[in-house]
Amino acid sequence: MEISGWLIFILLVQVIHGIGTWKLYVKADRKAWEAFVPVYNGIVLMQIINRPKYWILLLFIPVINLFLFPIIWIETLRTFGKKSTLDMVLGVVTLGLYIAYVNYTQEVTYHADRDLKAPNKTMDTLGSLSFAIVVATLVHTYFIQPYTIPTSSLEKSLLVGDFLFVSKFHYGARTPMTPIAAPMVHDTLPVVKVKSYLAKPSLPYFRFPALQKIERNDIVVFNWPADTLFHMYKAADKRYDKPIDKKTNYVKRCTAIPGDNFEIRDGIIFINGKESILPERAKPQYFYLIKTNNINADEIKNFYQITEGYPLFEIKNEIWDKPEFKNELISRYAFEEIARDTLTTAVTGQIDQDIYNKLGLMISPSYFYGNLTAEKYEKLKSDSRISSVKRQISKTSEDGIFTDIQDGKPSVKNNWNRDNMGPIYIPEAGKTVALNKENLPLYKKIIGEYEGNDLKVNGDEIRINDQVATSYTFKQDYYWMMGDNRHNSLDSRYWGFVPADHIVGKPIFIWMSIDGINDGLKNWSFRWDRLFTTVSGDGQPKSYFQYFLIALAGYFAFDYFRKKKKKKEEA
């Protein structure tokens, strides 16, 4: 719904409010016309029911107002003597219209000095619960949101099982776009597994002023722009369009900001022609081909705690050397020769159990791919048990790389892959780019989907909103997000730009970290060195957990002696 539509809706509600309550205003010694003046009528009503005036501000905050409106309806009915359970239920289920029925059909008395305490324990509990939900929702939506790292795309910078606090106010808190939604849950209600929101009506995008701009190499939480799936880990039977604020939350590192020219050369990021220097805490990982010296590969994996990787397979040379057989394996199963000795050849490819058995393959005892940080690479390189360590760099075009559609066939438009792509201009609000058939795939989704234009292409002719276009001016900023786990991350290299209206917040603090979070409760172990650490900053992360424990002990000691002193004075 557009802003004009919401304004009309708000005015309509004000008219209904005035018609339905003006007699009650008169009963409270106010003027009838005061019930009809937008906003002012709410201030007057708060005075009538003896509630804080700031509640009127809360009524304009999406999701929170869903809880506050029923409270105000109930408080209004109680102020005029309608205190029964039936009255309260009717007030809520009729969306406040029962008040209009009372206004015109009941002879009521205004109780200016009524007891504000709940009439019974049940109502007291509901009131306390509602207040707690309102406060928690306010904090969750506009200040701090808890977030858990679900995947390894930022390993070893952020780990699976890290529990974060994400600041909403650093980049400016975004107001909800789905005003009718369950509080403090994302797109699905737990247990019942149904949608937690209504897609309509919707609010236009609005963001409060930010404390800071997104800088290069900031870690950012955002809504995944490409989320058109009913479930992010299952193939969709059709396209599911979600509201922006209900798309899946992702966390990545912002590698390029609006106005940058972005490029990857052999896995190294270049911004505006210069190599991008990562902060000290960033620990990018790449896959390396590792060959051991007469020692089983599993021993090396365990010793260096290499948790991500995959094996190589050995095929007998007498099979591999048959040209017609070899060509079939390469074309159909993407086999690739990695190394060779007198009896066997080490290969990779699309190898399932059936192919493994038919070809009589063996898992190579000395070759394997391991995902390594630079620090671990240096250690392996100097280990006498290791024959060689070589970083893998993709050189050929990759299926599904931006802007290619994943269809099982490598892109024929360019030679891009996870290690080599670009240069790409990162769009900046207000800046204009020339449009042609060659660069249109880069910005097609921006023009048609993110910025809501009608885009049509007929041969070499590009039309935007039925006008021939040779250039385009961007309406908002865009960012390029990537995981530090460079060879195991679904990121902008595959789905492109992240619009500014998809930004959620900035991770600032790790309050809990559990190793084995996805392996069952009995396999959990706390990473004590990561508890109460900051996400960004100079130097290596430092835990402040011990200081928290000292402060907590100090508080309890102070509270103990304070109470002891108070009892002594009373005696």
Automatic annotation (TrEMBL):
Xref: Pfam families: DUF5684 (PF18936), Peptidase_S26 (PF10502)
EC number annotated for this UniProt entry: 3.4.21.89
Top EC category: hydrolase
Biological process per Gene Ontology, one example term: signal peptide processing
Compartments it resides in: Membrane
Membrane-protein topology: Single-pass type II membrane protein
Xref: SUPFAM superfamilies: LexA/Signal peptidase
Superkingdom, taxonomy of origin: Bacteria
Catalytic residues in the record: S153, K252
This protein's GO CC annotations: membrane
Catalytic activity as recorded in UniProt: Cleavage of hydrophobic, N-terminal signal or leader sequences from secreted and periplasmic proteins
Keyword entries, A-Z: Hydrolase, Membrane, Protease, Transmembrane, Transmembrane helix
InterPro entries, per the entry: DUF5684 (IPR043739), LexA/Signal_pep-like_sf (IPR036286), Pept_S26A_signal_pept_1 (IPR000223), Pept_S26A_signal_pept_1_CS (IPR019758), Peptidase_S26 (IPR019533)
GO MF, one annotated term: serine-type endopeptidase activity
Coiled-coil annotated residue ranges, if any: none
Peptidase S26 domain span: 126-281, 444-512
Transmembrane feature ranges: 6-26, 54-74, 86-104, 125-144, 544-561
PROSITE patterns: SPASE_I_3
Chief localisation class: membrane
PANTHER family reported for this sequence: CHLOROPLAST PROCESSING PEPTIDASE, SIGNAL PEPTIDASE I
Family per similarity comment: Belongs to the peptidase S26 family.
Protein name from the UniProt record: Signal peptidase I
Lineage: Bacteria, Pseudomonadati, Bacteroidota, Flavobacteriia, Flavobacteriales
